[in-house]
């Protein structure tokens, strides 16, 4: 029995990239707009780049993704934005205007670079990580921490809800996903 | 130097009624006065995103030509989009930049590099398929027909100055109504 408990504990401490990608696909996303982030570079971005079922658009700066994603939504095409929290902070004016005030279905998947595994973002030693959830809450942007495989089930409903209600959502990747 | 409104009148006479035209701020006001169409997409709220909105539309509807009317100040705020757009390489994107050397919507102050920046040169270096610079209305009239037929992404700098004054209703520009107008127009694309 002790060994079983250890396996359960190990599984719950794991975040699997392929499961996240499947959840993204299950939500109807066909296009992923990206700026690389060390947290998700190997476990998400590299397999997404190689996935024939997803179109990747590489952008130079994160706020570009907000305009591209909003425009795609007029055609009914769903997209996901994969960036780092620093890029989220950089893009705040575009998010404020296009995502929040103009009520666009902008789906952000944000790597929390440097967040300590198992520690709540608001309790991280990193100032930039600590302020993300309070900023999103202040802006009225729905947000979910994706820290373990148990959290992956939040992804498809969050994206579906964003498109059904034409509102933004942020999914915060709390640890580097495994490249498997 | 091209009067911007003269150029817009000439351009809209050469495009179809249901072509999507993406514009921002002062140019958008003039466009909507000269071509009051639900297929005009007014890019507002975050200056600089015009070129990114246009890329999204070009990717969304690859069989439809997307006309982008950018400003020089706007493009400078999103200069990386030249590389992003060229790399995405939408054949249906025509990217105009009205270069008047100022942040016109923000008081008419000069842009940095007012006398030296070469937008068409930067677009060429970024990888746009075709790049042009036009500085008089005759040159525009003589070339726009063939330019519109080029396989994009195509970039055109238009050296311009303000023409007549047109109404500027910022409340309408930012309203949900103008986005709903566009959404309804393109829902069957």
In brief:
The complex is a heterodimer of chains A (180) and B (189). By secondary structure, chain A is of the alpha/beta class. Chain A has nine helices and six strands.
Tell me what you see in this structure.
The complex is a heterodimer of chains A (180) and B (189). By secondary structure, chain A is of the alpha/beta class. Chain A has a single domain (2-173), classed as Rossmann fold (3-Layer(aba) Sandwich). Chain A is 44% helix and 18% strand. Chain A has nine helices and six strands. Chain A has helices at residues 2-12, 17-26, 41-49, 62-73, 85-90, 92-101, 127-130, 132-138, 155-165, and strands at 29-34, 55-58, 78-84, 107-111, 142-146, 169-173. In chain A, helix 2 packs across helix 3. The longest helix of chain A has 12 residues, at 62-73. Chain A is globular and about 40 Å long. The two termini of chain A are 27 Å apart. Residues 1-9 of chain A have low confidence and may be disordered. With 189 residues, chain B is of the alpha/beta class. Chain B has one domain (2-176): Thiamin diphosphate (ThDP)-binding fold, Pyr/PP domains (Rossmann fold), CATH 3.40.50.970. Chain B is 42% helix and 21% strand. In chain B, strands 1, 2, 3, 4, 5, 8 and 9 form a seven-stranded parallel sheet that branches. In chain B, strands 6-7 form a two-stranded antiparallel sheet. In chain B, strand 8, helix 7 and strand 9 form a beta-alpha-beta unit. In chain B, helix 1 (4-12) crosses helix 2 (25-34) and helix 1 (4-12) packs parallel to helix 7 (137-148). The chains are: A alpha/beta (180), B alpha/beta (189).
């Amino acid at each position: 029995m002790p060994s079983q408990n250890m396996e359960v504990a190990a599984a719950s401490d794991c975040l699997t990239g392929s499961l996240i990608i499947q959840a993204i696909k299950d939500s109807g996303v066909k296009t992923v707009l990206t700026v690389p982030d060390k947290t998700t570079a190997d476990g998400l971005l590299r397999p997404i780049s190689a996935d024939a079922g997803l179109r990747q658009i590489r952008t130079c700066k994160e706020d570009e993704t907000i305009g591209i994603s909003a425009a795609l939504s007029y055609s009914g095409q769903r997209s996901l934005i994969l960036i780092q929290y620093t890029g989220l902070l950089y893009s705040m004016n575009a998010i404020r205007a296009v995502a929040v005030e103009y009520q666009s279905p902008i789906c952000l998947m944000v790597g929390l670079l440097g967040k300590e595994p198992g520690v709540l973002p608001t309790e991280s030693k990193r100032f930039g990580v600590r302020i993300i959830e309070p900023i999103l809450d202040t802006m009225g942007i729905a947000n979910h921490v994706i820290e373990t495989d148990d959290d992956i089930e939040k992804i498809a409903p969050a994206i579906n809800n964003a498109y059904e209600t034409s509102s933004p959502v942020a999914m915060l990747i709390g640890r580097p996903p495994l490249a498997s | 130097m091209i009067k911007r409104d003269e150029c817009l009148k000439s351009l809209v006479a050469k495009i179809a009624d249901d072509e999507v035209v993406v514009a921002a701020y002062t140019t958008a006001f003039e466009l909507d006065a000269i071509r009051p169409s639900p297929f005009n997409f007014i890019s507002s709220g975050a200056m600089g995103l015009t070129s990114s909105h246009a890329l999204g539309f070009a990717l969304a509807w690859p069989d439809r030509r997307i006309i982008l009317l950018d400003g020089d100040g706007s493009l400078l705020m999103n200069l990386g989009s030249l590389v992003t757009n060229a790399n995405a390489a939408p054949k249906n994107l025509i990217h105009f930049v009205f270069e008047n050397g100022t942040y016109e919507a923000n008081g008419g102050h000069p842009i940095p590099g007012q006398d030296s920046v070469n937008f068409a040169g930067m677009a060429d270096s970024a990888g746009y398929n075709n790049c042009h610079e036009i500085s008089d209305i005759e040159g525009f009239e003589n070339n726009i027909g063939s330019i519109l037929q080029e396989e994009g992404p195509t970039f055109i700098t238009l050296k311009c100055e303000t023409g007549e004054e047109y109404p500027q209703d910022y409340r309408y520009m930012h309203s949900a109504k103008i986005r709903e107008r566009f959404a309804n127009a393109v829902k069957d694309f």
